[in-house]
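I have been asked to look over a protein record a colleague put together. Alongside the sequence sits a line of tokens, each denoting a local backbone shape. Please read both lines and tell me whether the tokens look consistent with the sequence. Take the sequence as given and treat only the tokens as open to question. I have pasted the whole thing underneath without changing anything:
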Amino acid sequence: MITLALDTATDRCTVAATDETRVVERHIDGARQHARSVLGLIDELLAELGVAPRDIDRILTADGPGSFTGLRVAASVAKGIAWAGQVEWHTAPSLLVRAAAHAPANGGVVLALSDALRGDLYAGCWRFAEGRVERVGDPPRARTPASLAEFGTVDVVVGSVPEPLRAAVEAATGRALIGGEASLPSARALLALDMLAGGTERVVDVAGWEPEYGRPAEAQAVWEKKHGRPLPSPPSIAR
């Protein structure tokens, strides 16, 4: 079985594929590179496995929160593949993909973070145990750094956090933040996550599915503040 995984929620576009024997992976950095590069990366991976797009049996995507444009890139690719070949499509929260890459070998609780702008962080927390994963607390959403203490004791904290917020994160969690290159998402981790009970969720309504965008884009927030009224937004955007 050929499984393809995509995570385009951040400035890193990461793609991986497996034939259940081998795992191959590519990535490219730069938010404006995703749309123009993702299909080429997929072609490279499939060629390395010696298969064609029609051989894909299952596709996995990270569903946000994250970059509005980036999330739509992966969603468009997944919808195209799912429609064309009646391929099974599963998704996972983008923060869960990051958390999975740092899950302790013997299990534990991992808090994953990303920049939600305007002084807030997207935060999601999961408990990993043998063969399964379960969410701790609320679904991923924007929070203040101080509110991270509400998750209780965590074993690992990982994520892309603006440097001015790092000290507040470490004070609230009592853990040193794993940031930088090590914190960036990996589609290989999404493939591994799909092997855990509770790791991914099947998309039933392929046509109607939308990513979890999180909050309005910065440009939209600035426009709304300037004009004093909200713009129409998808249901998944929190206010």
Q: What stands out?
A: The longest helix spans residues 68-85. Residues 79 and 208 are 10 Å apart (CA to CA). The longest strand covers residues 132-143. The chain has six helices and eleven strands.
